[in-house]
Specification:
Blueprint lengths: L10 E4 L7 H11 L3 E6 L2 H14 L4 E5 L5 H14 L5 E4 L15 H27 L9 E6 L14 H21 L4 E8 L11 H10 L12 H12 L10 E4 L3 H4 L4
Parallel strand pairs: 1-2, 1-4, 2-3, 4-5, 5-6, 6-7
Bound molecules: nicotinamide-adenine-dinucleotide.
Nicotinamide-adenine-dinucleotide binds next to helix 1, strand 2 and helix 4.
């Protein structure tokens, strides 16, 4: 196997891969290194589009699975479907997420709490619970049997906690905590677990609208030290690094990718 195609023979499962956000970009990046793909989303049309775009460029196997990750039954069915086709999940990317709109944590409605926590936190837990046992058995991939990457957010970090999206913030803080817990629980099985916490990136979650992002930053009085809105490919680059053999000794970490946003926030 050439260093160029270090993911050949391996499969990446990515949740929330049906939009042109981080999910599709990470899928493309992994395919460029030879990875086969399982793409999950609730958006079936988006999944078809992701598959079509990636297959035009890369000769890898791609399975799409429509499933709501907040529903443990649907996630268990997804796991069965995956292993009907593939014999491993080397990369498990918990990427699907929703913001639930702008509400402070104490003013949010119960429905918002349940849906945001349900996708962002319980969803990642459901998916990880359904796959970690299989990952543990993947001795063929020595020295690391599998890698889990959680897409958290600056909003889940101490400097970035965001009262405007309080429930989202709490869900991402929870996901960062799970990252460390799972790294502790799975380290002895040679599985690494890390998080990436993006700042502000131009994706469908912001309606691909830079003005909306600028308004959001202004409302929090934030000036980015690197004054650029993020490109989702930069998140894919970090995910690819974490997936690479060079990152085999990194676990339990939360990589903040925010142009310095969290070091510049000092007013709440
Ligand atoms: N864009 C940013 O600036 C930013 C910053 C920090 C963190 N994030 C996080 O990055 C991740 C990806 O977001 P994005 O910016 O690419 O936005 P996005 O809206 O394009 O992607 C999210 C995807 O998740 C899917 N999804 C939603 N609920 C689902 C469910 N129940 N089951 C399965 N799939 C579901 C959506 O259909 C969508 O395709 C999210 O977790 C988000 O919170 C984004």
């Amino acid at each position: 196997m050439s260093e160029q195609k270090f993911l050949e023979g391996k499969v990446a499962l990515i949740t929330g891969a049906g939009s042109d956000g981080f999910g599709r970009r990470m899928a493309k990046a992994f395919a460029s290194k030879g990875s086969d793909l399982v793409l999950n989303d609730i958006n079936e049309e988006g999944l078809k589009e992701s598959k079509k775009i990636i297959q035009q460029q890369y000769n890898v196997k791609i399975k799409t699975i429509k499933a709501d990750i907040s529903d443990s039954g649907q996630v268990k069915n997804m796991a069965k479907e995956v292993f009907d086709t593939f014999d491993n999940i080397f990369l498990l990317i918990n990427n699907a997420g929703i913001d639930g709109g702008l509400y402070s944590s104490l003013k949010a409605k119960e429905k918002v709490y349940d849906s945001v926590m349900g996708v962002n936190l319980k969803g990642a837990w459901n998916v990880t619970k359904s796959f970690f046992r299989n990952m543990k058995r993947q001795r063929q991939f020595k020295p690391v049997r599998g890698k889990i990457i959680n897409i958290a957010s600056c909003a889940g970090t101490q400097n970035g906690l965001n009262p405007l999206i309080g429930i989202y913030s709490a869900s991402k803080a929870g996901l960062i905590a799970f990252t460390k817990l799972w790294a502790l629980e799975l380290g002895s099985s040679d599985i690494t677990v890390n998080a990436i916490s993006p700042g502000v990136f131009l994706t469908p979650i912001y309606n691909n609208d830079p003005k909306l992002i600028r308004q959001f930053l202004d409302s929090r009085n934030v000036k980015l030290p690197i004054d650029k809105i993020g490109d989702p490919d930069w998140v894919a680059d970090i995910a690819l690094f974490l997936a690479s053999p060079q990152a085999n000794y990194i676990t339990g970490q939360n990589i903040i990718l925010d142009g310095g946003m969290t070091i510049s926030i000092n007013k709440f």
